[in-house]
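Before relying on records like the one below, remember that each one covers exactly one chain. Contacts with other chains, cofactors or solvent are not represented anywhere in the record.
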Amino acid sequence: MAAGNITIVRVLKGKWKHVAIIAIIALLVSVIISMPFIMEPRYKSEAVVYPSNLAPFSLESPTEQLMQLLQSRTLKAKVLQDQQLWKNYKLDTLDPKFDFNFNQVFDENVRFNQTRFESVNIEVFDKDPLKAQQINVSILKCVNELVKKIHDEKTGEFIEMYGLQLSNKRKSIDSVDRAMQELRNKFGILDYEIQAKEASKNYYQALASGKNPGSLTSLNEEMRQLRENGGRYKVMNEMLEKEIKQYELIKKEYEEKIRDMEKKFSYTSIVSNPNIPVTKSWPVRWLISLVSVLSAIFVACLYYIIADRLKKSVNT
């Protein structure tokens, strides 16, 4: 094993100039291929946001909901229209595979990552630093519009539901009120509790004053009407009070949803605004050069070691 290592060192020592020349050539080639006219530079705009005012629709956390919205096709379509990305990515809108191609290019150039602090990091890559920042700003604007649309759709459903309940409850109140009005007009019942108390008081006072019970016809008739229809009036009155309380509760919810619809919410709290990148993120020329040189040295060394062994095997 030691002899083999010595042989490898001897072979490479004799070829070090060749290896050095190959390394220099690899360095020059890597510098050339990493130039802008060959390898298009890419700039990265970053933003960091927290979710806010997101209504819970499932067991997902607000950050997970925001991630789902950011990665949705609906958001991509909104950003596509807002920034006219078919021009930026040089895509043919008449191509049957346009949607497929756009989604692939978008996913290559836009990344969403959930951080350990429950925020979302948005990275946008583009050949133009200003365009990268504009796309990032557009993403934040469009995700707010998307959440607003979803919020308004849900709120609209509640408004419609509460509106229908208010209408039905109003009809029920009117129905009970008409029945009570009929009792008032027909039997003169205005307030059962007070009238029953006053009728009893007047009846017993009349008896106490020595009046003949037969002469108390009007009082007897009043008490009979109260006995026969007073209970019905009392039940209806309690029903009416209950219906009005329910109506007020529904109306409160209805008005709350109306206010929610009119509010201008922001659904993201921006920690770091989308920046305009100053330096390109790709290609990293020193890294490409380093990898190229090391790879060239490794391949050259491997070639000379194998060539030496083949030469020896042929000579023997």
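The longest strand covers residues 43-51.
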